[in-house]
C-alpha cells in the first residue's frame, strides 16, 4: 500500500489525542541494563539479551487498538496512522550499530562501550514526512514518546527529542516496529519507535506517538537540560552542542582481559564504528609509541566494522590498545573522552 491510496492514512488528531493509547508504565522508574563485557560481543549481530537497555522514566504499556502516530506541525498535509496502516506500508530493513551516550548527568570523560549491532525494520521516516509536505520554515523534526515522569528530579510530560530535518530525510532513519526480525518488545520501545542510525540512542524515541516539523529545537528537558555536551567541561569558549552523531570509537573483543596467549603470534580483534564509518584502526602495545595497522572490514549499511591485526610478541605481559579514525578524519583520544581508546591487558606465555 502507498500513502496516496485510499484508507492508507487517517485524519489529523486533536491535540494530545495520540496519548490516549498510553495504559501505564512498567517499570515506572529509571531502568538500565548494562551490556556484557566487550569480549562477549563477538557476533556481528547482537542478540536482544546482550544489547543494553536504557529507560529514563519508565516503559510505556500501549493499547495497540488505540495506537496512533500523529504527523503534524509545520506541514501542509497533517495526518495520522494506525498501527495497521503503518504495517501496511512498504518497509525497509537496515543493519546499524546502536550506542548509548551514557549518563547526561556527568561530564563525558569515561568510555562506557554500551554498544551493539542490530537490524531494524520499519517505514523510512522520509516517506512519512514527504507525504506531510513540510513547509519551507521547517528545520527540525520533534519526536514524542508515550512515556512520562521524572528523571534526575526533573518532571517531563513526555520524552521528546529532535533531529534536523536534513537528517530526518535521510534514507536510514526509520519509524521501526521490529528488531532482529522480531516485533519490538515493550522495553525496546514497542510497538513503534524512532531509529536514527549513526546518532546516539537517546535520539531514537521509544513508544513513538507524535512527529512534528518545527522551526526550532524541541523544548522538553531531554533537549534543553539533558544530552547537550560541552567538552572539555567548564570551558566558556566551547559552547554546548546537542548529542547527535557518534564519534569514532572501537573496542577489543579478543584477547579478553587477563588472557594467557600461547605462542608469539597474537591476534587482536574487535569492533569499530562511527557516524560516517571508520577508515583505519591501529593497535599498539607500547602506549602509542608505535602502531600496527589493522585490517578493517568495509562498512555494510551503518553496521559496526570488524578489525583484525596480527602481532609478533615475546613472552611477557602487555597492554594492547586500539585507536579508530573516522571517514571525517577524527581520531579516538588516548586519554579522557567518552570515546577514549580501549585497553586490554594480557600475557604471552
From TrEMBL:
Where in this chain does the record put each Moybdenum cofactor oxidoreductase dimerisation domain? 245-333
**What's one GO MF term for it?**
molybdenum ion binding
Keywords carried by this UniProt record: Metal-binding, Molybdenum, Oxidoreductase
Location of the Oxidoreductase molybdopterin-binding domain: 57-220
Query: Is Zinc there in the keyword field?
Result: no
Q: Which cofactor does it need?
A: Mo-molybdopterin
Would you say which domain of life the source belongs to?
A: Eukaryota
Q: Biological process GO annotation list?
A: sulfur compound metabolic process
InterPro entries per the UniProt record, alphabetical: Ig_E-set, MoCF_OxRdtse_dimer, Mopterin_OxRdtase_euk, OxRdtase_Mopterin-bd_dom, OxRdtase_Mopterin-bd_sf
Keyword Oxidoreductase assigned to the entry: answer is yes
Question: Looking at the UniProt record for this protein, which Gene Ontology cellular component terms does it annotate, in alphabetical order?
Answer: mitochondrion
PANTHER family, per database record: SULFITE OXIDASE, MITOCHONDRIAL (PTHR19372:SF7), SULFITE REDUCTASE (PTHR19372)
Protein name according to UniProt:
Sulfite oxidase
Taxonomy, top ranks, is: Eukaryota, Fungi, Dikarya, Ascomycota, Pezizomycotina
Amino acid at each position: 500500500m502507498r500513502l496516496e491510496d485510499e484508507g492508507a492514512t487517517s485524519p489529523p488528531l486533536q491535540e494530545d489525542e495520540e496519548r490516549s493509547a498510553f495504559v501505564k508504565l512498567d517499570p515506572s522508574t529509571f531502568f538500565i541494563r548494562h551490556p556484557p563485557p566487550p569480549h562477549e560481543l563477538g557476533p556481528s549481530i547482537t542478540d536482544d539479551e546482550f544489547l543494553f537497555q536504557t529507560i529514563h522514566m519508565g516503559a510505556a504499556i500501549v493499547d495497540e487498538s488505540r495506537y496512533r502516530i500523529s504527523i503534524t506541525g509545520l506541514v501542509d498535509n497533517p495526518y495520522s496512522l494506525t498501527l495497521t496502516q503503518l504495517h501496511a506500508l512498504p518497509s525497509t530493513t537496515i543493519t546499524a550499530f546502536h550506542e548509548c551516550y551514557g549518563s547526561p548527568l556527568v561530564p563525558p570523560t569515561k568510555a562506557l562501550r554500551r554498544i551493539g549491532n542490530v537490524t531494524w525494520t520499519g517505514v523510512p521516516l522520509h516517506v512519512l514526512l514527504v507525504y506531510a509536505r513540510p513547509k519551507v520554515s521547517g528545520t527540525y523534526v520533534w519526536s514524542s514518546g508515550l512515556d512520562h515522569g521524572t528523571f534526575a528530579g526533573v518532571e517531563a510530560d513526555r520524552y521528546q527529542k529532535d533531529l534536523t530535518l536534513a537528517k530526518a530525510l535521510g534514507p536510514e532513519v526509520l519509524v521501526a516496529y521490529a528488531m532482529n526480525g522480531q516485533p519490538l518488545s515493550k522495553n525496546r520501545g514497542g510497538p513503534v519507535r524512532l531509529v536514527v542510525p549513526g546518532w546516539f540512542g537517546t535520539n531514537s524515541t521509544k513508544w513513538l506517538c507524535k512527529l512534528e516539523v518545527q522551526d526550532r529545537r524541541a523544548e522538553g528537558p531531554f533537549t534543553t537540560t539533558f544530552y547537550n555536551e560541552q567538552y572539555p567541561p567548564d570551558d566558556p569558549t566551547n559552547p554546548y552542542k546537542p548529542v547527535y552523531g557518534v564519534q569514532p570509537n572501537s573496542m577489543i573483543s579478543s584477547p579478553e582481559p587477563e588472557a594467557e596467549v600461547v605462542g608469539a603470534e597474537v591476534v587482536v580483534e574487535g569492533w569499530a564504528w562511527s557516524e560516517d564509518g571508520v577508515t583505519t584502526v591501529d593497535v599498539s602495545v607500547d602506549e602509542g609509541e608505535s602502531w600496527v595497522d589493522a585490517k578493517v572490514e568495509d562498512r555494510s549499511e551503518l553496521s559496526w566494522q570488524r578489525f583484525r591485526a596480527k602481532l609478533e610478541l615475546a613472552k611477557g605481559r602487555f597492554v594492547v590498545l586500539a585507536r579508530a579514525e573516522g571517514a571525517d578524519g577524527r581520531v579516538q583520544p588516548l586519554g579522557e573522552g567518552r570515546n577514549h581508546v580501549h585497553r586490554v591487558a594480557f600475557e604471552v606465555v
